[in-house]
Input
Amino acid sequence: MVRETRRERASDESGSDEHLTQAAQLRVVSGEFYPDWEAVYRDNVDRMYRLMYAKVGNRPDAEDLTAEVFLAALRPLRVSASVPEVRAYLLATARTVLAGYWRRTLGREVTTLTDEDVLEAVPAQAETPSPAAGLAAAILEQLPEPYRRILQLRFLDSCSVREAAAALGVSVTYAKVLQHRALRRAAQLLEVKP
Output
């Protein structure tokens, strides 16, 4: 069985590689390209972080998720892709990473990311309290003390899991379990709210 490549077929059909070269150069997107991975990261990290912060509402998780987006995109993303292609791929990767985050924390996917989300993400200079702060405080008051404390440490005080575990006097593994249970209970309370 002999496999014929596209280049060989194009050479046979047009008599030269010129036809194939012209077809390969046709692109709908702009001609801007990143010179290397460092440029991809520098140009997109702030936008991805602000997007993740707007979706999860706390710094530690937003930083972790931003890093996860770039790690997930590192291998399959080509540096030779144009700037719009890179941004579209990073946004698609962010959707997947965010879906995994919500699946792990709440037990279900809660993901809607659009291009408008990227444009309307939290400004880099200010982190203003959201109008949902009152609702969050009300839900926290309804949680048992260990659940309330772990959520306060992790999300309001921006502690890492290790720091929260030390403050509670428990192992890191138990702190993760406690946080998971607290988030599930908070989600249940949120669904009951009118």
User: Anything to note?
Assistant: The chain has two domains: 37-119, 133-192.
